[in-house]
Design goal:
Strand content of chain A: under 5%
Number of helices of chain A: 11
Radius of gyration of chain B: 20 Å
Helix content of chain B: 25-40%
Largest interface: A-B, 22 and 28 residues
Number of helices of chain B: 11
Oligomer: heterodimer
Shape of chain A: flat
Strand order of the largest sheet of chain B: 6-7-8-3-9-10
Strand content of chain B: 15-25%
Structural class of chain A: mainly alpha
Distance between the termini of chain A: 40 Å
Largest sheet of chain A: 2 strands, antiparallel
Strand order of the largest sheet of chain A: 1-2
Order of helices and strands of chain A: HHHHHEEHHHHHH
Number of strands of chain B: 10
Number of strands of chain A: 2
Helix content of chain A: 55-70%
Structural class of chain B: alpha/beta
């Protein structure tokens, strides 16, 4: 069950997208998200969908794998959808009991659902095709100018790398602890809210302890190898733009121009 | 016949590129009162196999039967099954969570819905069996040593009074003394209480002295299932799987090659020393 959550996971396979420089992918994802929220009509969404679909196709990550991860955030999507649907004032379409659905609400809810779905799919393509190491290397380089403002860029990047690295480990650990407690007759499914919340204690306590133990071990191991922050640290694999990265930037520019044009001249809604 | 696996297959991530066969056509029976060693290299599927024994994992195909009933049937009472087939995971001390030792051991029986008296009686009994005295009862389990924690965790499963006790690498990470204590404890449980014990390990050395049947797993398949003597006789095949027979087996084989008239099928150090002493009388 926990294995189904694929957000933040890396999917190992060979593809053009996997081989791109992480900086390109981060910039592209960011641009994609910004334009998603700027564009306001169906044509724009269609372009975004086509763009995303092409990238997923090129990434060789099976779509089923991506959408299995979506299941986990389906609830969040539904809640946003319902809130937008019922709580937006405007021209009434349907009204029953205390609920009113307005035309504006329907449009907004639909838009938000589409945007969120694209946003999550887009960013999971980033993490699915980029190893945590590459991802944080890319971020670190991109954020480097902020160092002048005394932002601890390296430390932030390192924390991110570790956090990402630990997601699958903690998932696995949770699964193991759950099984161990189930073997002792624990029941996580039946009962009311309070009983269910209580039944989490036997999972959470060992999980926290193990997270702290792991953090401690990791800190020790890093210090034992003389880690002392980012100053003077060189890279084993320095980031160098290659030809396909420039092609990717070009594609991104084309996408952005198309989106701007759609924003101005797109039709429907 | 208590527990029976019938052509069990299990595949991880079945529908993705990462699909990985963990168990391949595993059929075996675990009878009452047996003391079984389940041996295999890391990744041979032995840990996956044990999670099938109490219905924590459902086989991709095949059946697991307890007293003739399929435990993966929809309305089978798996909670009750888990009290009968006690499963002690690897590093079981990582599952401790209560504020004191006694309360932690009570967790299992409490989940069975027993009366307070019965819960406490069982917890006392379990802690006594693993050899922890009253001084420990009110201590935090996190203040104990590694070996003591592990005994608390084992007591937590014993308190459910299982008929079959399955332990996944119960001696991993313990020093030789702690190791022997745990193994002796299992032997006592088997002899005094008549509990069926399945001991999972990657070390022949550990299990050879204790078990009366060995199941060897490799690449998700059962390769050998026989009494120790016969399994160790095929030590060459074992080596190919990254396993080995106990050292005494090798010594006795060497001695026999050198022309001594010794029995080279012995498996324990005691038997071996008896055989060697015979040479001098």
């Amino acid at each position: 069950m926990l294995r189904d959550i694929t957000i933040g996971q890396y999917y190992q396979t060979k593809s053009v997208i996997h081989e791109l420089d992480p900086r390109v992918k981060i910039v592209a994802t960011l641009a994609f998200i910004i334009f998603l929220f700027m564009v306001n009509n169906l044509t724009g969404y269609a372009v975004a969908a086509a763009y995303l679909a092409t990238i997923i196709y090129l990434s060789h990550v099976p779509p089923t794998f991506i959408f299995r991860g979506m299941k986990a955030i389906f609830m969040l999507l539904m809640i946003t959808f319902l809130f937008n649907l019922f709580l937006t004032p405007g021209e009434t379409l349907v009204s029953f009991w205390i609920f009113t659905i307005t035309k504006e609400g329907l449009i907004l809810a639909g838009k938000m659902a589409v945007r969120l779905t694209f946003l999550i799919t887009g960013s999971s393509v980033l993490t699915l095709t980029t190893t945590p190491n590459q991802l944080t290397d890319g971020l670190e380089v991109l954020l480097n100018p902020l160092k002048k403002l005394k932002v601890p860029v390296h430390e932030i990047a390192m924390m991110m790398a570790i956090a990402l690295r630990f997601i699958p480990i903690l998932m696995e650990e949770t699964d193991k602890i759950m099984k161990a407690q189930m073997a002792r007759g624990a029941d996580f499914e039946t009962g009311g809210m309070i009983k269910k919340a209580k039944s989490l204690v036997p999972i959470l306590v060992p999980l926290f302890i193990s997270a702290f133990r792991r953090a401690n071990d990791l800190a020790m191991a890093m210090e034992a190898r003389c880690y002392h922050g980012g100053d003077g640290r060189t890279r084993m694999k320095p980031l160098v733009y290659k030809r396909k990265d420039f092609v990717a930037y070009l594609v991104l520019v084309v996408f952005m121009v198309t989106m701007i044009v759609c924003g101005r001249a797109g039709f429907l809604i | 016949m208590a527990l029976k696996l019938d052509h069990v297959n299990y595949i991880y991530d079945a529908d993705t590129e990462m699909a990985h066969v963990a168990l391949k056509d595993v059929s075996l029976e675990i009878g009452n009162g047996e003391f079984i060693g389940l041996i295999g290299h890391t990744g041979s599927g032995k840990s996956t196999l044990v999670t099938h024994l109490n219905g924590l994992v459902k086989p991709t195909s095949g059946q697991v039967l307890f007293d003739g009933h399929d435990i993966n049937e929809k309305d089978y009472d798996r909670k009750k099954l888990r009290s009968k087939v006690g499963l002690v995971f690897q590093y079981p001390e990582h599952q401790l969570f209560e504020t004191d030792v006694f309360a932690d051991v009570c967790f299992g029986p409490k989940n069975l819905g027993l009366s307070k008296d019965e819960i406490e009686k069982r917890a006392y009994e379990a802690l006594r069996m693993v050899g922890l005295s009253d001084d420990f009862y009110k201590q935090s389990p996190f203040d104990l040593s590694g070996g003591q924690k592990r005994r608390v965790a084992i007591a937590g499963v014993l308190a459910m009074e299982p008929e079959i006790l399955v332990l996944d690498e119960p001696t991993a990470g313990l020093d030789p003394k702690g190791k022997n204590e745990i193994l002796d404890l299992l032997k006592n449980l088997h002899e005094e209480k008549g509990i069926t014990v399945v001991l999972v390990s990657h070390s022949m050395e550990d299990v050879a002295n204790y078990v009366d049947r060995i199941i060897v797993m490799d690449h998700g398949q059962v390769q050998f299932d026989d009494e120790p003597k016969k399994v160790f006789a095929s030590y060459k095949e074992l080596e190919k799987m990254g396993l080995a027979a106990p050292q005494v087996t090798y010594i006795m084989k060497d001695l026999k090659e050198k022309g001594f008239n010794v029995d080279d099928t012995v498996t324990t150090i005691e038997e071996a020393s008896d055989e060697i002493m015979k040479q001098f009388t």
